[in-house]
Amino acid sequence: MKLLEDGAELDGFVVRECLHAGGMAHIYRVDYANGRQAPFPMAMKVPRMADGDGAENIVSFEVELQLLPVLRGPHIPRFVAAGDVGVVPYIVMEYFDGRTLQAIIDQDLPLTPDQLRTLGAALASAVHALHLQNACHLDLKPANVIMQPDGNAVLIDFGLAWHALYPDLLAEELRKAVGSPAWIAPEQVVGVRGDPRSDVFAIGVILYELATGRLPFGAPETQGGLRQRLWADPVPPRARRPDLPTWLQEVILRCLQPEAAKRYSSAAHVAFDLQHPDQVSITALGERTRPTSFGEHMKRWFKAAGMQYQPSPLPAREVEEVPIVMVAVPSRGATDATLYSLRQAVQRSLGTRSGARLACVTVIDAPVTGPGSSETEQHRQASGALQQWARGLDLDGHQASFHVIESGDVAQALLRYAEGNHVSLIVMGAATHGLQLQRFVATVPVKVAMAAPCTVILVKQSLPFERLATT
């Protein structure tokens, strides 16, 4: 199909300049033809269908046409309209200003660790939001991620995506290794689609390239080259760039584990570690500076040869099985009964969910400085008290982190933390004193329960629940 001309009209739209002419589609800026003001900038995507173009172009178009109208949120372009496949196929969608991660790689490297974690956390948050809608992108790469000026990451090009509630048109085509070779996950190489951890692998590839300027597995062009990632791992990022911190390499290499079960089980967990680098548990992955030995790769090769790959449960269910659980622990004045009841409720909430993460949070007032007192010392004491409280928990199979927040508004501080860290469950004490007064003045637990972005468990004790902090 030839390029549409600037000024041409099509089904009530005026075509403007061509923004991108790629191997799969052309993208144009468009306006309404009747002069009506659009609520947001718009772009039209028209698949290539010239002689010699593969059938995957039109199949990918049909996949995107199927999924884009049902996906929601600030990380996904809003759907406007679509054209008849039998006449002129197109999709009109929201157009975003910003730069792709590919442009950042081409123009801005090297990036600082802080820049890397900011970009990575934004990307992981966007991917997590997609997984909560029971969809997987499966073609994440720098060119398909737009960074907006406010730091929000937008995912584009859903032509290879998968949704649990809609037919998988690409699987019906019986193709294997559907995806972009440099970013495709090992399980995708053997034809497994629908595992959200495949997107986690792609996040690792993107972070590796952002950190080092190199692709971890190159750009293989053969099936044999693709299959190598079923057992191989890349040169450690710190071997290519020694100034990278160990926590960043830990995150990257954990995303890139050949076995999906050894990766982060949720993109929310990737975002959490990138947002809290001081809480990342450093293992041998983070410390490595030499490539894996030939002998170890041979062992993995034999293991991979007999491995059976199966997709995970529904993406949203996968997220539910490995939640980030937040417990709000009073900073002072809590009775033993209060602390014990919270501990018991947290233990039940973690249950048998291996891989669930526990975030222990306490809110303190603005520190009062004076002789023998400092802000650092008060934070240290509060953090120590949190860790002391957690020693009574059985955390086998769970990661725990400890966070001290300084705020005069306890409820808002807890709500901001929960929303910013993709918390799935909040556990906190229920105020049992002043029940008549609570009809008129909302307590901290009531405020949190009313406005929380997730489930809240209020734990009731026989003794009065003290305030989390004096406000």
Task: Walk me through the topology.
Elements: E1 9-10, E2 13-21, E3 25-32, E4 42-47, H1 56-67, E5 79-82, E6 91-94, E7 99-100, H2 101-108, H3 113-131, E8 135-136, E9 145-147, E10 153-155, E11 162-163, H4 169-172, H5 186-189, H6 196-212, H7 223-227, H8 237-240, H9 246-255, H10 267-275, H11 284-287, H12 294-305, H13 315-321, E12 324-328, H14 336-350, E13 357-364, H15 375-390, E14 399-406, H16 410-420, E15 425-429, H17 444-451, E16 455-459
Parallel strand pairs: 12-13, 12-15, 13-14, 15-16
Antiparallel strand pairs: 1-2, 2-3, 3-4, 4-6, 5-6, 7-9, 8-11, 9-10
Helix pairs in contact: 3-6, 3-10, 6-9, 16-17
Give a nutshell description of this structure.
Helices cover 35% and strands 16% of the residues. With 471 residues, it is α/β, with parallel strands linked by helices. It has 3 domains: 9-94, Phosphorylase Kinase, domain 1, CATH 3.30.200.20; 99-316, Transferase(Phosphotransferase), domain 1; 323-459, Rossmann fold, CATH 3.40.50.
From the coordinates shown, what is the CATH architecture of the largest domain? Orthogonal Bundle
CATH C-level of the largest domain:
Mainly Alpha
Strand portion: 15-25%
Helical amount among residues, as a percent range? 25-40%
Unreliable stretches (pLDDT < 50, length at least 5) are 433-440, 463-467
Q: In what order do the strands lie side by side in the largest sheet? A: 1-2-3-4-6-5
Write down the overall geometry.
globular
Instruction: Describe the oligomeric state of these chains in a short phrase.
Output: single chain
The CATH superfamily of the largest domain appears as Transferase(Phosphotransferase) domain 1
**Overall average pLDDT:** 88
- Counting structural domains, the number is 3
Largest sheet: 6 strands, antiparallel
SS-based structural class? alpha/beta
Strand segment count: 16
